[in-house]
Design goal:
The chain is of the alpha+beta class. Strands 1, 2, 3, 4, 5, 6, 7 and 8 form an 8-stranded antiparallel beta sheet that branches. A hairpin with a 5-residue loop joins β5 and β6. α3 packs across α4. The protein is globular, with a radius of gyration of 17 Å.
C-alpha cells in the first residue's frame, strides 16, 4: 500500500500552518559541530518557495548561508500520522523584512489578539531578522490515513524498528 502523497496533497499539506523542523549541515558552524535541527515557523504556497524568517546573526543563518541549502520537515501531530519533508537550494536571502509578511507569519501561527501582541512586543525583529527563501527540490511524504481507515481506527500502526 503506497503511503506517498500526491503532488497536490503534499503541497497542500506543506502550505498548512505546521511548525517545521529546519535542518542544515555543519558548514559555517564551529569546528566539530554536526547537523542543526530546530523548530521554526515557515510559509509556503503550492508551487512557490518556502520562506523562513530568522535572526540575521543566528546559527541557522550562518549555516544556511554557508551550505546554500536546507531541509524542512512538517508533520501532523495527531493520528493518523502524515508528514512532508522538503530540501532545496536557497534562492534568496532578503535583509529587510516586509512588515506585512512578518505579520502574516505571526497570524498564521497565533490567534489574532495574540499575534497583534506578539508583533508589538517584538517589533525590533523587523530590523534584526531576515527572510530566507528556498525552492523545494526534493520531496518526501507519507500519509498513513488509508492504513488507519483500513484497520478501522483513527491511528496508524507504529513504525517498526529493527
Amino acid at each position: 500500500m503506497p503511503f506517498t502523497m500526491s503532488v497536490a496533497d503534499r503541497e497542500s499539506f506543506l502550505a498548512a500552518p505546521h511548525v517545521g523542523v529546519l535542518a542544515v549541515g555543519g558548514a559555517g558552524a564551529e569546528p566539530g559541530a554536526g547537523l542543526l535541527a530546530v523548530p521554526i515557523w515557515y510559509s509556503y504556497r503550492p508551487g512557490g518557495v518556502l520562506t523562513v524568517l530568522t535572526g540575521r546573526d543566528s546559527a541557522k543563518t550562518r549555516r544556511i548561508t554557508a551550505a546554500g541549502r536546507f531541509a524542512l520537515c512538517a508533520q501532523q501531530e495527531e493520528p493518523p500520522c502524515r508528514y512532508v519533508s522538503v530540501e532545496g537550494p536557497v534562492v534568496a536571502i532578503e535583509d529587510r523584512l516586509d512588515p506585512a509578511e512578518r505579520a502574516a507569519m505571526a497570524h498564521r501561527y497565533m490567534p489574532t489578539a495574540t499575534a497583534r501582541a506578539y508583533l508589538a512586543a517584538t517589533a525590533e525583529q523587523l530590523t534584526a531578522d531576515i527572510a530566507i527563501r528556498m525552492r523545494p527540490e526534493r520531496w518526501h511524504s507519507a500519509d498513513f490515513s488509508a492504513v488507519a481507515a483500513r484497520l478501522g481506527s483513527n491511528t496508524a500502526p507504529a513504525a517498526e524498528h529493527p
